[in-house]
Amino acid sequence: MNMIEQIKNGIIRIRSECCDSLSLCERYGILNAAKHEITEKIDFGENWIKTPFGRTLNYCVRPEEDNEEWKAISDYLSKKFEDKKLNYKVIEGNPNEKKEASDESIINLNQNAGFGISISIEENERFYGLGEGGHNKIELRGGCYQNFAMYQFDEIPIPLVISSEGWGVLINAAGRHFVDIGEQKKDQLIVCGEDDALDVFILCGHTMADVLKLYTELTGAPMLLPKWAYGLTYIANINSNQFDIMNDAKKFRDLHIPCDMISLEPNWMDKFYDFSTKKKWDLTKFHMPSWLRSRNKPETFISALRRYGFHLSLWLCIDYDLTAEAERQYKGEETCSLEPWYEHLKAFVNDGADGFKLDPASMLDTNHPDMVCANGISQIKMHNLNQVLLPKQMYEGFAAQMNARPMHHYCGGYMGIQRWSAANTGDNGGELGTMVWLETLALSGHMNTTIDMNIYYPESIHFGMFAPWAHINAWSGCRQPWWAGDEMQKIFTEYARLRYRLIPYIYSTAIEGHETAMPIIRPMPLAFPSEEATMDCIYQYMFGPSLLVTAYTDKVILPEGVWVDYWTNEEYAGPAEIEKYIPPQGKGGGLFVKKGAIIPTWKDRDYISQYSDEEIMLDIYPYGESSYIFREDDGYSLDYENSRSCHTLITCREDGNTVRITIGNREGDYQNKPEKRKWIVRVHGTEKNVEVECHESIQVSCEVEYV
Questions:
Q1: pLDDT digits (tens, 9 = 90+) for 104-158
Q2: CA torsion angle for 467, 164, 129, 210 (degrees, to 10)?
Q3: Which residues, in sequence order, are CB contacts of 9 under 8 Å at separation 6+?
């Protein structure tokens, strides 16, 4: 028997009768499926659901008894991905030990033979999501996909599928499972699991944006990184010592290449690739003896970096059982059988570290086939969930220790990862393939993503500087901007300085993403759902509400509206296609502004906190009537988790030869909010009379200039 019930506005849960207790995702705080008061009822029956926009979803659940049809479907999927199972591999530094289960926290789970559900789909319907499940396209129809975290294949499998018609499916399964979107049967979306019971959520909205919002209501809103983390992160050469690091830092400042975080690779530890909880500084490379270890010691290299606007991040790898701490949290106990993973990292945060790079190492590309975790479940069954437990425990540990937001990033993930971590695409470069992944991750609710930017190619710099956070990885060789040659150094510097001028816009968009689930990168079908020509467009996306970015193509598809080439100021009337777009010399792709845009910026700087936030420039492209909400907060505290940011409504109306701009009241408050604000209004286009009105309750000065 199966149970079907509405648990929230817009959300229906279908599950096997044997799933009457909390699922693992619920048990460990990855998913919250608690029932809420329902004010908008959804009609449903035993095999159908009627969505708010009138669409009827017919579904069929795999019967408990043997069924040849379902067996054939399952066998097809298993065979298709038979080479995509993980094998145990020894990695340098891996202790190669199998851990024994403790006796204190065994979970009694029903043994399941697997599950299946099929849902009817329409002929012209399109589907998106599944994290990094898609490799060369963002539209997923006609293919099969495996939801199981696997190094360099599908490192962030997010079990969410969203339809262009405004509904979606979230699959609450811990183990490996498959999604077939019209491959075996063109009119059906099929989900099959190997060793879980049926438990899916049908998300019913009107648009894909609605579905993303419903997903985050179940799994948590995207986290906000510290404001400085939306600048540039530089991972230093693996062979660097503290003086190499300081020299790199000085280069950034002397060359006025903006940068906010420097990250150390595994050479910072005295044992190279130390997986243990007994890590120590390599004192031959980094002078951090016991008597000097404190955030308050001015003579450490970390303090020196901080004085010049840099934050420090440390590389980590992990081969550790996270379930003991997860069980302790669930049971509310004070201690558990294993030391919590974050516990040993407190000392390095006390030293001055502000972030960590979580290397996938054993977490993503290995499995211990015979290992039983501390919660009594096999390591393979826990594999997907471990990809979230790691960043979750890192987030909670740092937040409790510092009462501030952490900055850690991980190239793994699963359901709910957006709540706990930033992400990069790992050892997969920074070219077109990773562009697809950033788009599909955005369509799966994951907002704070980036790539390993390739500083030797303008296209990669262009794309990488218009990622949610920017990141270069020197690792080995000469991968610093100043060794890329005069031309590439100039290109990199100009892009970095442009990004830093846009930080108020980027950070405001990040806050919007936290509050509404609308990501920073907005693939074209999400931003323009009615534009048929861009439904599977992988070469361009919206960066926030107003900037259209293209890369790795000379074809540009412009939606309805008027668009301004940011590089040349040439205007285009959409909808239109540019067949042979060639960016100017020194540019790696197209950057277009939608007229009507109101874009907050600030003056050039070498790091985020170099100057105060009091002065904001508004780059305005008048076109009819338009509006924009500028969002801001303190940029570092955890207050964002429980309170809305400060909002300022800005409107622009073009009326004949006059442009009227209204800057509203700053609604809301936050720590260290500037008492005064200086607005510099920069109006782009044909010169007209400009009138600016500011809300009387705010102390403000305003300057107007034409660009």
A1: 333 444 345 689 999 999 999 999 999 999 888 999 999 999 999 988 888 999 9
A2: 80
A3: 36, 38, 39, 40
The one-letter amino acid code at 200 reads: V
Angle between helices 503-516 and 486-501 (to 10 degrees): 60
Q: Measured between alpha carbons, how far is residue 552 from residues 199, 239, 469 in Å?
A: 40, 33, 20
- Do 133 and 23 meet the contact criterion of CB atoms below 8 Å apart? no
**How crowded is the C-beta side of 55, counted as CA atoms within 13 Å?**
21
pLDDT band at 697 (very low <50, low <70, confident <90, very high): low
CA 150/CA 387 separation, integer angstroms: 11
CA gap 447, 433 in Å, rounded:
18
Q: How many CB atoms lie within 10 A of CB 295?
A: 15
Place of tokens 């259209």: 548
- The Cα–Cα gap between 485 and 494 comes to 14
Q: Where are the beta strands (DSSP E) in 238-380?
A: 261-264, 311-316, 353-358
Quick one: what percent of the chain has pLDDT higher than 90? 80
- pLDDT given for residue 475 in this prediction: 82
Contact 635, 665 (CB under 8 A): no
Residues 6+ apart with CB under 8 A from 217: 8, 11
Amino acid at 67: N
DSSP state of 608: G
What predicted TM-score, i.e. pTM, was given to this entire model? 0.95
Q: Is 301 helix (H, G, I), strand (E, B) or coil?
A: helix
- Round to whole Å and give the CA distance between 155 and 19: 28
Structure tokens given for 162 = 């969203």
Domains of the chain (ranges, CATH numbers): 2-80+112-219 (2.60.40.1760), 522-594 (2.60.40.1180), 612-706 (no CATH)
> How many alpha carbons fall within 13 Å on the CB side of residue 219?
31
Q: What is the pLDDT of residues 547-580, one digit of tens each?
A: 999 999 999 999 999 999 999 999 999 999 999 9
The Cα 399–Cα 386 span in angstroms is 20
